[in-house]
Amino acid sequence: MVSLLQNHPITEPLAILGFLQPIVNKKFYIETFGCQMNVHDSEKIAGILYQSGYERAEGEADAGVFIINTCSVRARAERKFHGYLARLGRRKKDGADITIGIAGCVAQQEGNDLLARNPFIDFIIGTHQVHAVAEVLKQIDEVRAPRVQTGMTTEISEVEPFIAKRSHPGRAFITVQEGCNKFCAFCVVPFTRGRERCRTLENILIEARYLAEQGYGEIQILGQNVNCWAEGGNNFIDLLKSLDTIHVKWLRFVTSHPAHFTEQMVEWMGQSKKLCPQLHLPVQSGSNQVLERMRRDYTCEQFLSILSLLRRCRPGMAISTDIIVGFPGETDEDFAKTTELCAEVGFDSMFSFAYSPRKYSLANRWVDDVPVDVKRRRLMELQALQRQIQIEKHKNLIGDELVVLIDGPSKKATEIYSGHSGCNRVVNFISAKIAAPGQFARVRITNSGPNSLFGKAID
Fold it and tell me: Which of 19, 38, 61, 114 is the most exposed place for a label (fewest CB within 10 A)?
C-alpha cells in the first residue's frame, strides 16, 4: 500500500529552527477516547511500537512519546481530547522533552488544520494509517519536522494478530469491518472512517484461532456497521457460523444497524451456543419523524419487530441502545414518543446524548433549534427513566447464579473482584480465593444497584 504523506506548509521553517528534538526516551503512553474500535486501534499501535523497540511507560511522568487516540463522534469526547492536548502542550512549552502524536477520528477530520492550531504537535496519523505509526516516528526523528499522514485506502490495512497488545487478559477484539456508507444526518463517521471496507473471512478466522490458542475466553468482533460485513459470497451469518466453530466460550459483536437485521440473523442468534445473550442495537429516537430526518432507514415499528423476534428466539436477551435527544426539529411530542418506546422496550442499558452538531455531517447545515436547557431537561428525564428500569431489572437478578468473566481485582477493597456477565452486566463479587483476570467464575447475586450487580463467588 502506498503511504500518502502530507507535509504541513510550516514544516521547513520549523525544521530549520530545530523544532523537533531527537527521540531519546522511547517509552510511550497512549490516551484513548471513544469506542471499542479506538481501543483496539490503540492496542495495535502499542504492539507496533513494541516491535520497533519502544516500551510502554508505567505512567505519564515516565513517557517520552504520547499518542492521543481521538474520537469526534460526540462533542464531549472532542472537548476532552482538546483539554488533554492543551495540558501536554503546556508541558512541552515548559521544557518537557516529549513527542506528541495524534491518531483517530479528530486526527483524520482536522489533519493539517489541527497542526496549524497546535504547532507543538509532532505527528498526526489518520484512521487508515495506524499501521504506519512506527515509520512516521522514524521519519520525524530523522528529518526533525512534523508529519501529517491522513491518506485513506480502499482496503483495511492488516496488522498481524500477534502484534496487538491486548488490554484485557480474557477478552479480545477483532475488527472485521470499518467505515460506513449510511451518512446518517448526525454522524461524521463516513468522513473520519471512510466508506465500508471488510476483511476477508480467511484473515478473520486466522486471528480468531490465534486468540483461542492464546486462551482468550471472549472474542468481540467490531465494525461501524458490523452486520453489513460481506466478502465474496459470504454474508454476516456465514461469518457468525464460522466463528461459532472457534474454541472460545463467548462471542459478541458490535455495532449493528437495525436496517440490516434479518430474520435469518435473529434465528441464528437463537441457535448459537457461543453468542452471548446480549446485543447493542442503536435506535437513536422513538419518533418516526425524527428517524426520517436522521436518515436511519427504518421505523420504530420495524425496530420493535426485531426486538420481539429476538426475545422469542433468545429468551433473556439483554438489549442496549443509543439515544440522541434534541436533534434538530425534535418536538416535545417526538421526545415523548422516545420515552414511550424506551418504557415499552425496557432496555438493559443505554448510552444517551444531547445532540451536538458534527463537522461535515448533513445536520451541521441545519439550525440547531432545540435550546440547550431543553436538551438538558430531556436528557435528564430519559436517564432518570432508564435508571429506574435498570434498578428493577437488577433487583430481579438477586438470587440468580451468573457466569462472569473476571476483569480484575477491585482497587478499593481486598477479596473484591469485578467482571462482566454474558449479558454484559458489571458484576462485583467477593471471593476468598484469588480470582485471576481473564478466568470465568460462577457468582451468586446478593445485591444490586442501577449500574452493577454484587455477589459472592461459588466455589
Answer: 61
* Length, in residues, of the chain: 459
β-bridge pairing 27-32 and 65-70: parallel
Separation between Cα atoms, residue 340 and residue 333, nearest integer Å = 10
Strand partners, 447: 454
Enter the C-alpha cell of residue 199.
476483511
Closest by Cα among 287, 292, 104, 257 to 185: 292
Short-list 206, 192, 123, 196, CA closest to 158? 206
Rounded Cα–Cα distance for residues 220 and 287 (Å): 31
Specify the pairing of strand 230-231 against strand 234-235.
Answer: antiparallel
Is the pLDDT at 16 greater than 70, yes or no? no
The answer to whether 399 and 445 have CB atoms below 8 angstroms apart is yes
- Rounded Cα–Cα distance for residues 111 and 76 (Å): 20
- Neighbour count for residue 293 (Cβ, 10 Å): 20
pLDDT digits over 46-105, tens only? 999 999 999 999 999 999 999 999 999 999 999 999 999 999 999 999 999 999 999 999
Inter-residue contact 334 to 340 (CB < 8 Å): no
**Rounded-to-integer distance, Cα 382 and Cα 379, Å:** 5
For the chain, give the longest Cα–Cα distance.
Answer: 69
